[in-house]
Design a protein that fits this description.
InterPro entries: Class-I_Pyr_Nuc-Dis_Oxidored, FAD/NAD-bd_sf, FAD/NAD-binding_dom, FAD/NAD-linked_Rdtase_dimer_sf, Pyr_nuc-diS_OxRdtase, Pyr_nucl-diS_OxRdtase_dimer. Keywords: FAD, Flavoprotein, NAD, Nucleotide-binding, Oxidoreductase. Helices cover about 30% and strands about 25% of the residues. It is of the alpha/beta class. It has three domains: about 180 residues, FAD/NAD(P)-binding domain; about 110 residues, 3-Layer(bba) Sandwich (FAD/NAD(P)-binding domain); about 110 residues, 2-Layer Sandwich (Enolase-like, domain 1), CATH 3.30.390.
Length: about 475
């Protein structure tokens, strides 16, 4: 085979160079295949430049300051306020100032090729890439094409909204100047995290949440986050919709469904995500452009055996870590199938994404933090599971009281009483993120409660909450 043909033909073609696409390609290459990534923006994707990394960098400085302010002895040493320019500069360092040079070098080290441009399916196992100058290049896959194009922020059809140049998560995480005031439309994770960040940095923030805060989580999570936002000075308006939006020289004017108005320097829309699948040639394989791409648990598109959809674009769980989990399974599977190796596609097998259904952890870096995994009480009951719920006040745990003066929080386990295993867990409180992995392991491993009694938490740590929760289950079930 000549050199030109090798350039155009690969075992695997990946559309999308975010962390999901990178992991699909990397696992396939590690398995012995050749791979190329097609990316029209920055290699590293949404997470690296406009989501996970910059958003958490914006939040962390205020979080660290707050912890110090809530421990006597340390609090007396805190004499100043946040340096907003330094916070932004630290954020910029985590995005490499929106340069993907380092990510491209990593691709080279991993022996993954890169095609800059917009990729579209144009035939069976065929992708045509159009670069910024209009030039085209045809790529052919010997074995598979994986779509990992991610998702976009939704701009709802509110009168006047699209015409005021609203912020989405991209603008909120990459802003170079602090707005005097910010209105946030939405009540999900992006909404509460960015409201937390900008309120802590000094903006006057209003949250407008028609359906409440963190609606898919345990109700107490949204209630505690609402109280935390109000403590930060945020005007939280729940159960009210947005009727119209207009901008003039005074700012953005928002008319709400109760007749009240909000005026702010900028408005952030955080009302959900849509699949980035509108112009990638899905119609060539009989799929609907712009829709979530349905897949089985091996991330394969039904009836199109060479096509995979991995990460946000399949709509299963819109979280970077779950997308990377899917990517590891898909990349390994593509390599195994290509090389004629055994496929492990049973539940919890190496080549499936079973955890998407039962054990997808999530941390909301709000004030207070929310860490959750598995099913809520309502979701478990709706699934027909016989459940017992155990709640405990985190502030009563010795390790928590040592960690922060006046520590406030709540923990909940949802337990399947017929199988005697945990199916869901939620923790709300200062820096509870690190508690969720233990719960994830317990759920994935289906560890019996009787065995969990022998996983003794160190004293005095916040993890002692596990002992208290298990004691609660024992008492309630006695």
């Amino acid at each position: 085979m000549d050199a030109a043909a090798k350039t155009d033909e690969y075992d695997l073609i990946v559309l999308g160079g975010g962390p999901v696409g990178e992991n699909v390609a990397d696992r396939a290459v590690q398995g012995g295949l050749t791979a190329i990534i097609v990316e029209s923006e920055l290699v590293g994707g949404e997470c690296s430049y406009w989501a996970c990394m910059p958003s958490k960098a914006l939040l962390r400085s205020a979080q660290a300051l707050r912890v110090a302010q809530h421990v006597k002895g340390a609090a007396e040493a805190v004499t100043g306020a946040l340096d907003v320019s330094a916070v932004f500069a630290r954020r910029d360092s985590f995005t490499s100032n929106w340069s993907d040079d380092g990510q491209v070098r990593w691709l080279e080290s991993a022996h993954i090729d890169l095609a800059r441009g917009h990729g579209r399916l144009t035939g069976e196992r065929e992708v045509t890439v159009t670069d910024a100058d209009g030039g085209t290049r045809v790529l052919r896959a010997r074995h598979a094409v994986a779509v990992s194009t991610g998702s976009d922020a939704v701009i709802p059809p509110i009168d006047g909204l699209a015409g005021v140049a609203p912020w989405t998560s991209r603008e909120a995480t990459s802003a170079q100047e602090l707005p005097a005031s910010l209105a946030v439309i939405g009540g999900g994770v992006v909404a509460v995290e960015m409201a937390t960040a900008y309120a802590a940095l000094g903006s006057t923030v209003t949250v407008i949440a028609r359906s409440g805060l963190l609606g898919g989580m345990e109700p107490f999570a949204g209630e505690r986050v609402a109280a935390g936002l109000e403590e930060l000075g945020v005007d939280v308006r729940l159960s009210v919709g947005t009727e119209s939006v207009r901008r003039d020289e005074e700012g953005v004017h928002i008319v709400l469904s109760d007749g009240s108005t909000v005026t702010a320097s900028e408005v952030l829309v955080a009302t959900g995500r849509s699949p980035r699948s509108g112009d990638i040639g899905l119609e060539t394989v009989g799929l609907e452009p712009g829709a979530w791409i349905r897949v089985d648990d091996t991330l394969q598109v039904p009836d199109v055996p060479w096509l995979y959809a991995v990460g946000d674009v399949n709509g299963r769980v819109l979280l970077t870590h779950q997308g990377k989990y899917q990517a590891r399974a898909a990349g390994d599977l593509i390599a195994a199938r290509a090389l004629g190796e055994a496929v492990d596609d049973a539940p919890w097998g190496r080549h499936v994404a079973t955890a998407d259904h039962a054990a997808a952890p999530q941390v909301t870096f709000s004030f207070p933090e929310v860490a959750s995994v598995g099913l809520t009480e309502k979701a478990a009951k709706d699934a027909g599971i016989s459940v017992q719920v155990v709640d405990y006040d985190l502030g009563w745990v010795a390790g928590a009281s040592l960690y922060e003066d006046g520590f406030e929080g709540q923990a909940r386990l949802v337990i399947d009483t017929e199988r005697d295993v945990i199916v869901g867990a939620t923790f709300v409180g200062p820096e509870v993120a690190e508690l969720v992995q233990t719960a994830t392991v317990a759920i994935v491993g289906e560890v019996p409660i009787s065995r969990l009694w022998h996983a003794v938490p160190a004293y005095p740590t916040v993890s002692e909450i596990w002992l208290r929760l298990l004691e609660g289950y024992g008492r309630d079930s006695a």
